[in-house]
Amino acid sequence: MSQNKTIMEVNQELVKERAKCNFNVLEVTHILDGGEKNTLHRKKIESIALDEGAYKDPIPEEYLSPKEKYENAVRKSCLFCKIVKNALTEFTGLEHFSNFFVLRRTADAFFKEISPFLLHLGMFLPTILGQCTTEQQAYWLPRVLDIQIIGTYAQTELGHGTFIRGLETTATYDPETEEFVLHSPTLTSYKWWAGGLGKTVNYCIVVAQLYTKGVCHGTHLFIVQIRDEETHMPLPGIKVGEIGAKMGFNTADNGYLAFDHYRIPRQNMMMKNAQVLKDGTYVKPDSHGKLTYGTMVLVRVILVNEVAFNLAKACTIATRYSAVRRQSQPKPNEPEPQILDYTTQQHKLFICIATAHALQLASAWLWKTFNAVMSDMKKGNTDSLPELHALSSCLKALSTSDVTSLIEQCRYSCGGHGYMLCSGLPNIYSFVTATRTYEGDYTILLLQTARFLVKAYEQAEAGTPVTPTVLYLIEFVSGKRTPWDGSPEGIIKSFQEIAAGNISSCVKSIRNRMSSGLSFEDAWELTTIQLVGAAEAHCRAVISDTYKKEIARITASSSTNVKIVMEQLVNLYLHYWALNRTGDLLRYSSISGEDVANLQMKYEELLTLIRPNAVGLVDAFDLRDEILHSALGSYDGQVYKRLFAEALKSPLNQEPVNETFHKYLKPTMQGKL
Ligand SMILES: CCC/C=C/C(=O)SCCNC(=O)CCNC(=O)[C@H](O)C(C)(C)COP(=O)([O-])OP(=O)([O-])OC[C@H]1O[C@@H](n2cnc3c(N)ncnc32)[C@H](O)[C@@H]1OP(=O)([O-])[O-]
Ligand SMILES: Cc1cc2nc3c(=O)[nH]c(=O)nc-3n(C[C@H](O)[C@H](O)[C@H](O)COP(=O)(O)OP(=O)(O)OC[C@H]3O[C@@H](n4cnc5c(N)ncnc54)[C@H](O)[C@@H]3O)c2cc1C
User: Is the pTM above the cut of 0.90?
Assistant: First the structure.
């Protein structure tokens, strides 16, 4: 298991917990990594990147000024890139799925917040891969992969983020010079938010309304140089800067950008799908109208994995801490219990462990689905794109929303110490809460899924085939219902009935409103609260079903105790959400009041069964201390020694008397101020 570089003796509380664990921890690590080979691969990359200690800061990041924080983050980004480049020569290449995720996770040791290079690898590179022709890729990719240029993705504007069709930046083609003229006509058209734009990047992908021959063809993507490659000065016609202090992401130099009739060559339009010919003729993509939104779909898929990882970090911290922390005296003359022994504490934490597993497996499944759809699209078949868009939208929305709440729950479960930056939890929270907004706001993405669900419902009603994730609608419209039996399969069935019931209610509401004279748009708008609920219910059913099936498949050859503990967590997830949705269950399934009481009993039994394995389960995430950045969550559990060591690092503790005593306190106390 992972050890800290500053080795301390392991706290006896954790020694005892580890002795209690009745399953093979390494076997679960292999499951979470997707196989033993992947675990070895990950450990090797982590070892190359971290063993030399290059991630260490001379002064803790939290005590630096904003400017120093940024400069330190750039220094470490360059260092990390160098290490990564060396590491990759030993492996299969950056496009390898596990490499991308391992590198992203390892980077957390270097950055308590965010690398200013995140968008370069996270969006600039994937957009070039997804939106450029082969010739364009041949020109750009070597420069991008070799970090000869650094780029970002500038789509959002001051006035519009969600509504992409409302973006105001224009790219007008001039056939005389074979150039596009980029222009920001208003203050609200200023690009706003792109990571790394403020100070770091010299190129960026700009999303702008394309005009040619006097006609607007909607938003398209362009590669734009914004700073001189030698001097880094903004080029003439470019206004660029940083947007200011934020709740998190303070090392990411999110920026603004405006154009004053700024010219770029025609070849800088990303032309894999639509094209503008030399004479200005516009050639439409012949397959699907939303292909330019491709990078967003990819990033939404990746984000499910990203938040699962962050939840694993948070619950590792909170569970280890809860095993070390003792509080209160429920039984007279007995020692104070570990707070992990309180049922309410288990209720706060074990759902976090189960959710981290559920989302990790759902994200691996979604990634496979994404690749299958991409491979179909290469052959010109875009039939599965709507389902992928619906799935990636709701999984991104629900996973980021669930994880945001659960990370906050982990912080609550650590009491006052969880509020300290050195617990690691505030940084994890401020990062994850942003994921609920960026790359498509929660509500907006669920409404996209709802569009798909309403259409699927109408198809099921009409007897036309529906896609795999909504097959349950066919049973529902035929009136078939499964009697409640309380089994895991039965709970999943009931989640599908809740989803179908909710979608059906939405369809009825929309139809009723339209028959009373409202337009479709107005009827839809008035139904949006229900539509969001329906999409959420659908997504819960998808995650639950995938989690259960994937665990059964993966643990088919596992040892008995691993199988048992993995199944307990699946059941815990299902019971937790069933209890959370009793209103819907009573409305849409055949559950009775007594069944609800049984569900509650079963849930509480599961907490007791999981309790002895709790520390083993978080150890199985195998997160190195360098990546956790937590005085509360380190492998050795030396919580109090580490909290005190962190307190001593405070700049206020570097002198016995602060100068404010002489300047203000003393004169005030002596009545001289
Ligand atoms: C580290 C931090 C990094 C952060 C980076 C960022 O945040 S970067 C910034 C991230 N910014 C954001 O994420 C912005 C979020 N906003 C958006 O993504 C879009 O504005 C929108 C999807 C909300 C609406 O778009 P719209 O007004 O153009 O569309 P519409 O609603 O009129 O629907 C028309 C049809 O298109 C379909 N369709 C839509 N999208 C897709 C797709 N991707 N694929 C396939 N299909 C798609 C839809 O299903 C519908 O099909 P139907 O029913 O007619 O068969
Ligand atoms: C940390 C961070 C990093 C980012 N990085 C980038 C980046 O690198 N590049 C980039 O281009 N962008 C980036 N963004 C911008 C991000 O993508 C947008 O903020 C996001 O898409 C939400 O758009 P918005 O800000 O316009 O919100 P708004 O759309 O204004 O949302 C405000 C509220 O209005 C509601 N709302 C809006 N429209 C509707 C509707 N039709 N129906 C119902 N409710 C609605 C929303 O649900 C929300 O509650 C970043 C944002 C953050 C926070």
Answer: yes
